[in-house]
Hints:
The protein is of the alpha/beta class. Helices cover 35% and strands 13% of the residues. The chain contains 16 helices and 11 strands. The strands form 2 sheets. The protein has a 6-stranded parallel β-sheet with strand order 7-6-8-9-11-10. Strands 2-1-3-4-5 form a 5-stranded parallel β-sheet, covered by helices on one side.
Amino acid sequence: MDKRNWTPEELIAFEDRIGDLYLDNKLPFLFHLSGGNEEQLIEIFKDVKEGDYVISNHRSHYHALLHGIPADVLEDRILNGRSMFVYDRERNFFCSAIIGGTPAIAAGIALALKKKGSDQKVWCFIGDGTEDNGHLFEAARYVEGYDLPCTFVVEANDRSVESTNEERWGKTAHFEWPFKCVKKYQYEITYPHARKPGMIDLSKAIKKTDDEYFPPLKPFVYEPVDVDPSILYKDAVENVMTKLGEEGAVFIGYNVARGDAMGTLKNVHAEQKIETPVAENLMMGLAIGMSFEGFKPVVYFERHDFMMVAMDAIVNHLDKIERISHGEFKVPVIVRAVSADSGPFYSGITHSQDFTAMLKTAVTIPVIEPTNGEEVVNAFRQAAMSDRPAIIIEKKSRY
């Protein structure tokens, strides 16, 4: 590990070099330079231990260097369009430029570490722009409520792109967090929100394609298993959930403990069922984070309509993490997406929608719609055998 003692001057010199590479037409990419918070971060990272997770964002360079990623490795990744996509599985360094997505993932990692009795901790660095959405509040409240080993560090520079907190929030601009797991410091950033002043000559820069920067994943090859073709749809769901439970899967969602997910989890041990708040993005983030620590999460959405709240986590994270991390992070999460397309009582058009077609266009991961019991078993067995995520559509009308 290359976690050395950086000085403020050395950190500044690194970012100055990246800025010079930009002005030399070497960086035709979106990137965000750190600056102005060198001393604060050096002090914070004194408490970050080897093996701890560091969760960063679009402004990741200082975090990466202070957590031990070698300067030459980081520079190479920046030169290859990965300034906002810096990952290091060996050092447990994770990054996302979708700023609201990381707190829930951090909470999931911390939940997994606590369940395993680990001494590792999670440090999630976010800007004060992330305070603008509710995802941080959900995650911080969850971490606080379950005493999870996670600290959220808000790096407050009073700016979201060019707007100040007061312009966005009025008299509630400078929010004080009620949770001990949230730490906040103020600083004045050295650089603009993105890049640095001065426009480069893009005709002299080399830009590649998405597939060149982030090669697509090879398809998963699956061999179907033999199943009794007469098995009923709901019996098949119950059987595969029981089998997943026996294999150690964890089941995440609301109504998974009390209601056993419409009775389909009745044979699963209680400690494997994680009842969550009614916070769908948090549910998905918990599953993603737990998967990093070797768990096989199954997330239960009892209606497609409710999944819309979790679409950031599904589209920007679950679907993209393995590819944009160049395979360093795997996300073997199974999503049970139930469409409430029938039932004894009318539930209205916002409780019975079917978004299967939309999901198939929104993500690249498998979206599987089994129509009978035999297909149900094969769909879930395929997902269980893979080290990648999958969305499996269930229809109440087939139960």
